[in-house]
Design a protein that fits this description.
single chain, about 1300 residues, alpha+beta, 6-stranded antiparallel beta sheet, 6-stranded mixed beta sheet, 48 helices, 24 strands
Amino acid sequence: MSGSSAALGAAPCRFAHYFAICGIDTDTGLEPDELAGENLEQSPLKRTFKSKALAHYPENVEWNPFDQDAVNMLCMPRGLSFTTQADQRDPQFHSFIITKEDGSRTYGFVHTFYEEVTSPQICSAMQTLHLMHNAQSTTINPSSTSSSSSSSMDSLASSLDEADPPISSSQRAGGYDSSRDTLYVSKAMCLITPMPFMHACRRFLLQLHRAVMSATAPPLPLESYVHNILYEVPLPAPGRSLKFHGVYEPIVCQRPGLGELQLADFPLSEAFTLLGVENLVQVFTCTLLEMQILLYSHDYQQLMTVAEGITTLLFPFQWQHVYVPILPASLLHFLDAPVPYLMGLQSKEGADRSKLELPQEANLCFVDIDNHYIELPEDFPQFPNKTEFTQELSEVLLSFNISANTGTRPRTRTNPGSTPGTPAKERRPLALRQLEDDGRNGNLAGEELAVLELLQGNATLQRLQALTRRTGVTVARVDALRAGVRAQGSEGPGARTVAEEEELRNAKLNVQLREVFASRFTTMFADYEAFVIQSAPDLESWLTNREQMHNFDKASFLSDQPEPYLPFLSHFIETQMFATFIDNKIMSQWEEKEPLLRVFDGRIEKARLYNVRAPSLRSSCYQRCPILKESAQAIEQRLMKIDHTAIHPHLLDMKIGQGKYEQGFFPKLQADVLNTGPTSNKWSHRTATAQRRKDRHRQQTEHLGLDNDLKEKYMQEARSLGKNLRQPKLSDLSPAVIAQTNWKFVEGLLKECRMKTKRMLVEKMGREAVELGHGEVNITGLEENTLIASLCDLLERIWSHGLQVKQGKSALWSHLLHYQAREEKLGQQQAESPVSNVPERRKSDCCVAMPYLRVSLTQDMRHIQSMSEIKTDVGRARAWIRLSLEKKLLSQHLKQLLSRQALTRKLYKRYAFLRCEEEKEQFLFHLLSLNTVDYFCFTSVFTTIMIPYRVIIIPIKKLSNAMTTSNPWACVSGELRDSGVMQIPKNVLEMTFDCQNLGKLTTVQLGHDNAGLLAKWLVDCVMVRNEITGHTYRFPCGRWLGKGVDDGSLERVLIGELAVSSGEEDSGKGCSTPPLLRSPSQARRISITSLSGRGNKPTSAQIQEAIGEAVINIIKHFHKPEKERGSLTVLLCGENSLVAALEQFFHFGFKAARLFQKTVFVWDFVEKAVAYMESADQMGDLQETVEPLGMTCQSFCRYVNAINSTSRNIGKDGKFQLLVCLGARDRLLPQWLPLLVECPVIPRMYEDTALLRDRTSVNSLIGVLETLHDFPVTLEASLVKGIDL
């Protein structure tokens, strides 16, 4: 009993936890494996039968319970396979991984070989199946077509099985006949370990298999070797190497030190060789951005090598979602998971990719390992410095004689699959085949390595070889192999075996490649700590409020990054793996640092020591990895100087006659000696004591801190979705468990929707949200785009969940097309139900003349379908989501789409998210909350599309001049471009025009040619509407256009504002978040002269305050990120703008109204001042003034004359506006003001109380205007058209 407890105490430090055997259970006989996709048309030898875990040792390990079903399923993912002596029976090696709910991992290493079937019942059962199959084949003509699948999952299973061609009669003749053939069945030996020592486990299992197949019995019974690796071989300590003994030879492994990258024993060189550097970097980027990644290969070990290779390279981050590198055939329904995943799917030899129907492909990265190509999702940002990065990786590979250019160019989603029907072997590039066969590279294929090990370990073969040499016969192949080994052996010090040489080479290459990746992250996130927000006083309060807290200042971090990095980084910092990394950083102030974080922080510290906070940390220049040589040396030193040698295998206390040997058969091992550990083993006692010490320490810290279970519960909730489902439950596949898994997905999708909509609202509402206690202030355009893209991705995943039949790449667009077809069939376009119930945006009085724009889901679809720029269904779905979001109709449209319940039932299975009524309602409610903010996510992204616009001119009706005899014209300008001058037909106040997207509208130039008798026109405002998005802009005027009236202007530049319709205000009512407080609607722009006559003059204090406000708004504009600034024209010329404030300043105390005379304008004063300056210049008076003042006079006169001599009839107020804008642009306003103050014209035109005659006011105005000199003011073309300076 004491031995057993000692062994259990030592288990966490044991090299291996379990040894298991899987194969055929002779008691139950042949059971077809329905879950693996049974295909009765196949020959019985090709069918899959259920395997079973026959034995495992020990019975149980306390902290790693043995999961019999999972181990059996992953040891033999496709069940048992049968063969006869006529077929190849090469052994195969593969590994697997089991991820537990808490994220911890256990590794399995499997050696599968064929064993002769001795059971007469099984042989006769196989014979019967063959006879039945032959009888059926002769009566029915075998057809290779499969019936139309009832679901996307069924079709996936059938497409995987279809790979085998129909069997010809000649093949049938050579089938299985028990009187003539020997039947073999697959059997698997498996080691289950806590750490991925892949090479060591592979060599141990290989030697064990050699012992079984060898003609002579092994030196000791097999129980001795299994007992040794289970109980007497410890895990190497960090930074140490370990040597233990297999059946024939010693095996060496090493473990990285605490400051090094964690253990990764899967050969990265193989992953790079299989995919090529370019492709691997692209798949790595998809993994970082948490897309769905599906690996596809006929070889389980290749699936595992690529999956583990990619996740290893993520350091210091960790994959947080579903991770199943080998997906057993019985779990194909798991590809329906609407979450990010990294899964591996086995293809059958010669399988056709084009027939592989996957449930969702909108956000899928498909990696065809055998054919070396990948398919990437659309809208995919590149990894920063990708070109230099791939170059550095290629150089590392070349330094180990590995070509870096394998793999074909990645394809995007629109491309078809690889050429069907071409065998993988033929498609494999020549370079790769040479590489695999090239002994000089040390890249010996697995079989060659096995042959060499066989030669080295077998005395009989050694004697045979010596004999052949003496007789002069040469065994060329063996000699060539030996030469290759000698060449390698001569390079390194000491005589190492070829396997050791190979392992050292792999380990050095692995670590160098990983260091290149780690170096990129160290450079990119060198300053990440500065942006971590530490807001909680203790761990408990942080865990409790985790969801409400902002942990990382994303906006500031992005603003600090080089421009080329932003597309990638803005997506990456929204991922779960980045959030978990920051969570770990925050928790490290209360508990021990997570190992990856500790190593990463150490690297950043080291980089700082060398760099002394160098600016290079922030530049986009590529920095190569500086520690490649050091990292490889550490490994070489460990493998050359072995730190610890384990106890040799020895005879066990077994009864005589136990451990019987029979060549070619794996014996039934003695459970009594393998289920208990050694009784007197210094090492196990030592580790047991260490373990007890650790346990005591853990108990103390638990008492001090938070209760562990509670903490785990909080952590599960805190670290959002995906975490609660790392891997499907392999042990129980009952309908109840599958339903529970789907329910977890539904809950997860709803939670993700809530988080995403909340984040979008908080970011968009900016400062108001901060005042309400929601955290961060500003959002960049880049960040907004990232959030919307992730919303599109979420909607695609929701629509992909539980599909009956997959049609097209986008599940959402497919549903919309079904809806559209049904609506058109019913002929309901004219009377869509929501129109009668909820009219969209009833226009308020301000836009009473604008005709009604009907809400129509199908109409919005037609807009998208007519956009030739979008080529794919995924693109159309995303454009439709953006358009609906901009129109504030996303929730309403989706509600309408889902209201056709018969259609939803036809398209979706019962467990689908869209058929869970309560969750669906909540989901639509979360989307409705997005109506409280304004998005321009359609207008700002699709900048080149043609858009129809409607223009309405509203005259002031109570006056008779509503109709004019002149010929009016208009030009509409936006942030992207202008429409050009368009003639308006006479007496027509409404027109439509098509034009390339203008962006957000900023100005309208309105004018006429002054022809005819009624050439005067009093315009109230102009309305312009984008007919696709429904955005309506109002351009107030309230002035005359005509000679001899008002300021004599024949054209005016009107400044626009987005009109708020009453329908939009209603849309906020059903939402918990109040709509944004809006600035009061812009009043009609009235000339200051008419204002002064009405007795509501602003005071001097109000005017000075208005100037200060206008200047502050312009400064704020320039402090925003460039893409966020909006229109500067509004700040210069709109309501409460700089021009309006300066007009008030110049009008204060101005003698405007004269008795029986025409109204005088400020521009008249400016012209008189210029006339005085020019006459004084001619008289020579100005020549005596100081030089700079003379220059200023000349510039002032030049600008005023240029404005006066323009061909445009812009009127006196328009000219003053233009002078202010040009003065602000060229930084001349503060220099011109003293000239006007000193001008003798001023007393005639201004009263004594005028602000312009008050030195203090003028000086303070000059000071305020000078603050604008730091900013580059640019003017819209519509303002400065026709001005020649």
